[in-house]
C-alpha cells in the first residue's frame, strides 16, 4: 500500500509538470502562429470568427509537436526535483527498488506514447482538415479590407481589383476589375461566349455582400475575338461568387492516416485522388511514408527517452558529477528527439530507411533497459 501511494504521488507530480510545460510551449507557439493567421482577415477578407476557429483548430498540430519535448523536460525536472528534496534518498533507504521506479517511468512513457499516437494519427489530421474546410466554405466578411488604395489586389482567384482611392466611408473611386474566368458572367448578355471581362467604374461601394458600381464600362471578348463594350449607370456584382487564392485543397498533413495508408498500398484510389493531387503517384509516395511515420513512428522514441532519463537515478558520490550528469542525460534525450525528427524526413526515400526508423527505438529500448538493470543491481550490491 505504501509503494502504491508512492507511485501515485510520482505519477501526479509528473503529470502536473508535463501538462504545465506542454501548455506553456504550445501557448507560446500558438500565439506566434495566430499572428501569422491574421492574413486571413487582412488579406483574404474572412471574418474574425473564422480566424479564431481556424487558429484554435490548428492548436492540435502544435500540441502534437511539443509532446516529446514536454515529456523529456517534465521527466528530467521531476527526477531532479525529488532528488533535491531528498525524497529519492528516503525511498531508497525505505527499501524501494530503483528498477521498480524505472518500470514506473517506462509505463508513464507508454501512456504518453498512446496520447501522442491518438493526437498525431487521429485528432490532428481531422482538426487540420476541418480548418481547411472552414476556409473553403466560409463567407467573406468584406472585400473592402482587401482592396487597398492605389494597389492591385489578386487575393481572389482569377480576379484582379484596383481602386485609385477610398474615402472614410469605404467608397471607392476609379475602379478597375479584371475577370479572367467569367466570375461575373451574369452581367453580360451573351455570357456563354464571352471571356476576359474587364470592368471600369467611376465609383463603387459594398452593400449587403454586393459590390455596387456607378458610371462605368464592361468590356468582354467573344469566342471570335471581337471586343464588346457595355456602358452602365449602375450595376451590382455578387461577392458570393468570389473564390480566395488561399489553398483550399487538403494537404498531406490534413489527410487522415487511414486514407494515406490506403493511398500508398492501392494503385487506384478514387476517393483519395479527389483529395490529393496526383495520388497515388510515385512522386508522392515518399512524402506519404514520411507523414505516416511521423504520426506512427515518432511516438516510439518517447519510451526510449524515458529509459535514458532513468540513468539519473544512478547515484554518484561527487556532487559536481551529479550536476554534470543531469545535463548529459537531458542532452542525450534531446539529441534522440532531434535525430528522430531529422530521420523521419528521409524515411520515405527507401524501404530500408522506413524499417530503420521503426527499428531504432525498438532495438535500443531493451538494450538500454538491460544496461540500467545491470548498473542498478551493481549499485545495490555496493
What topology does this entry show?
Blueprint: H1 2-36, H2 39-42, H3 48-57, H4 59-84, H5 87-93, H6 98-137, E1 153-156, E2 159-166, E3 172-179, E4 194-206, E5 210-222, E6 227-238, H7 257-265, H8 270-273, H9 282-296, H10 301-309, H11 319-346, H12 351-381
Antiparallel strand pairs: 1-2, 2-3, 3-4, 4-5, 5-6
Task: Please name the defining characteristics of this protein.
382 residues, alpha+beta, 2 domains, six-stranded antiparallel β-sheet, 6 strands, elongated
- What's the main sheet like? 6 strands, antiparallel
* Unreliable residue runs: 267-275
| Annotation, overall tally of beta strands | 6
User: Strands of the biggest beta sheet: in what spatial order?
Assistant: 1-2-3-4-5-6
Broad shape: elongated
**Helices and strands, in N-to-C order?**
HHHHHHEEEEEEHHHHHH
Going by helix content, strand content and strand pairing, the class is alpha+beta
Helix content: 55-70%
Q: Overall mean pLDDT score? A: 78
Q: Mind telling me the C-alpha Rg?
A: 30 Å
How many H/I helices? 12
Tell me the strand percentage band. Answer: 15-25%
Number of domains: 2
Description:
The chain has helices at residues 2-36, 39-42, 48-57, 59-84, 87-93, 98-137, 257-265, 270-273, 282-296, 301-309, 319-346, 351-381; strands spanning 153-156, 159-166, 172-179, 194-206, 210-222, 227-238. The chain is an alpha+beta fold. The chain folds into two domains: 2-138 and 250-381, no CATH class; 153-241, no CATH class. Helix 4 (59-84) packs parallel to helix 10 (301-309), helix 6 (98-137) packs antiparallel against helix 10 and helix 10 packs parallel to helix 12 (351-381). The chain is elongated, with a radius of gyration of 30 Å. The two termini are 28 Å apart.
Amino acid at each position: 500500500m505504501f509503494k502504491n501511494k508512492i507511485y501515485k504521488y510520482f505519477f501526479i507530480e509528473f503529470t502536473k509538470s508535463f501538462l504545465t510545460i506542454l501548455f506553456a510551449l504550445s501557448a507560446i507557439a500558438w500565439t506566434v502562429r495566430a499572428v501569422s493567421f491574421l492574413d486571413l482577415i487582412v488579406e483574404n477578407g474572412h471574418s474574425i470568427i473564422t480566424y479564431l476557429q481556424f487558429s484554435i483548430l490548428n492548436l492540435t498540430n502544435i500540441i502534437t509537436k511539443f509532446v516529446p519535448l514536454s515529456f523529456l523536460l517534465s521527466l528530467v525536472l521531476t527526477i531532479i526535483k525529488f532528488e533535491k528534496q531528498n525524497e529519492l534518498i528516503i525511498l531508497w533507504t525505505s527499501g524501494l527498488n530503483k528498477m521498480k521506479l524505472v518500470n514506473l517511468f517506462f509505463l508513464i512513457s507508454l501512456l504518453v506514447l498512446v496520447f501522442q499516437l491518438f493526437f498525431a494519427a487521429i485528432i490532428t489530421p481531422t482538426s487540420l482538415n476541418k480548418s481547411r474546410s472552414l476556409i473553403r466554405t466560409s463567407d467573406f466578411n468584406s472585400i473592402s479590407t482587401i482592396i487597398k488604395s492605389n494597389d492591385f489586389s489578386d487575393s481572389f482567384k482569377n480576379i484582379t481589383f484596383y481602386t485609385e482611392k477610398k474615402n472614410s466611408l469605404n467608397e471607392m473611386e476609379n475602379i478597375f476589375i479584371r475577370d479572367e474566368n467569367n466570375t461575373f458572367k451574369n452581367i453580360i448578355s451573351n455570357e456563354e461566349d464571352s471571356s476576359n471581362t474587364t470592368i471600369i467604374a467611376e465609383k463603387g461601394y459594398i452593400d449587403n455582400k454586393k459590390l455596387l458600381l456607378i458610371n462605368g464600362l464592361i468590356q468582354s471578348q467573344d469566342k471570335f475575338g471581337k471586343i464588346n463594350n457595355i456602358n452602365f449607370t449602375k450595376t451590382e456584382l455578387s461577392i458570393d461568387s468570389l473564390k480566395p487564392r488561399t489553398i483550399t485543397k487538403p494537404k498531406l498533413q490534413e489527410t487522415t492516416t487511414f486514407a494515406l495508408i490506403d493511398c500508398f498500398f492501392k494503385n487506384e484510389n478514387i476517393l483519395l485522388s479527389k483529395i490529393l493531387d496526383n495520388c497515388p503517384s510515385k512522386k508522392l509516395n515518399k512524402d506519404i511514408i514520411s507523414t505516416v511515420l511521423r504520426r506512427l513512428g515518432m511516438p516510439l522514441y518517447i519510451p526510449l527517452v524515458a529509459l535514458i532519463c532513468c540513468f539519473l537515478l544512478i547515484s554518484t558520490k561527487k556532487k559536481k558529477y551529479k550536476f554534470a550528469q543531469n545535463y548529459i542525460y537531458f542532452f542525450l534525450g534531446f539529441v534522440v528527439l532531434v535525430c528522430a525528427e531529422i530521420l523521419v524526413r528521409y524515411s520515405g526515400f527507401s524501404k530500408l530507411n522506413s524499417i530503420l526508423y521503426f527499428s531504432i527505438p525498438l532495438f535500443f529500448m531493451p538494450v538500454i533497459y538491460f544496461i540500467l538493470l545491470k548498473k542498478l543491481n551493481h549499485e545495490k550490491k555496493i
